[in-house]
Every structure is written in structure tokens, then in C-alpha cells.
């Protein structure tokens, strides 16, 4: 009498089934490369985030050139002129300090004799108004008056512009650093220095304060530094 296996028709065993699947038992390929590429993108992203303030500061130099090729109201200073480390000024407390120590905020700078005539007062007034109109951004700006002598400042000027840093500086050192328009003197202009300590803009003689405000507003908007 013939006996029949309880297993029914012959089937491949589990071991044979596993070995018959393509790629069974082999190590996955490509995983190491994928991890390396992901790591590279993470590093690049971190580098981009760290470089963002620098990119923004460079962008700020060129956002004033809209379509049509027109430039900002102020003249962009190229190449950059950093505050000379040798430029020492005397503070209101009578102590010497490097002008470069003011790096970290935007500086609006005027240069005049301590007697401060009408043109001098006008520039100080424009600087104060430009700063005041920046609303919540105004603390990013410091107004600086570089006095070219050590004489007394009129009491009326001291009282009206007590929010301006009044510093005594060597006029020859200041003139060597600050460029002028043809036919003008360093005392005719208002200058702007970025938070990295680079002279970046010169405003014309007898300026329009509303146009200065426009340039400054754009700078503060497009640059996160300072």
C-alpha cells in the first residue's frame, strides 16, 4: 500500500526560498554615499547661515542701484576705507580713544571746528533728524561730530545736541581718511560708516535730509549687522 506524504506536493524549503530571492543575504549598497551627501548639505547650510550677515552687508552696498542704473543719493565709497587704527580722538571725558572703538553700530559723521557755524549746526540738525526718523531702528545709529580743535563748544550747541558724540580729532588724520567731492572740503559733507568700521557713503554738500533718510532707511532694512 502506497503512503502519501502529509506535506502534499513538493515545495521548496524556507532556506531554498530565501536563496532564490534576488539579492538575498547581500549587504545594501549606496547607503554610505547617501549619508555622506546629506552630511555635506548640512555643512553647506550651516556655512550659509553663518555667512548671512556678511552677505547682507554686501547686499546693502548694492541695493541702491535699482532698475535703470541710478544710484543712491549718497556716493558709495569704493574701495572700502576702514577707520584707521591710528586715528585717535579725545572723548568728552578728556580721555583719548581710538575712533575704531565705535565699531558695532552705524556712524553718521560730521567734521567741523568747535565754534560750529551755521553750516555746522545744520549738519548736526540733519543728522539728529535722520536718526530720529528711524523709529525703533534709531539705536543702531550713533551721530559723531569730529571737532578739529580743542576750543569750547557753544553752550546752545551742547544743549541741543547732547545725543551726539563730540570728539576732538587731528584734522590732518581725518582729511587723510575721508574723501571729498571736487571743489569741496571735508567739512562740507556728512559721512556714513558701517558697523564693521568701513567708510561706505558720503553725502553731498548742502544735502537734502529726506534723501539721506531714504538711504539710511534702506541700509538698516537690508543689513542685519549693527
TrEMBL record:
InterPro entries: Thioredoxin-like_sf
Region (Disordered): 1-34
Protein name: Cytochrome C oxidase subunit I
Keywords: Membrane, Transmembrane, Transmembrane helix
Superkingdom of source: Bacteria
Cross-referenced Gene3D superfamilies: Glutaredoxin
Transmembrane portions of the chain: 41-64
Species this chain originates from: Paraburkholderia kururiensis
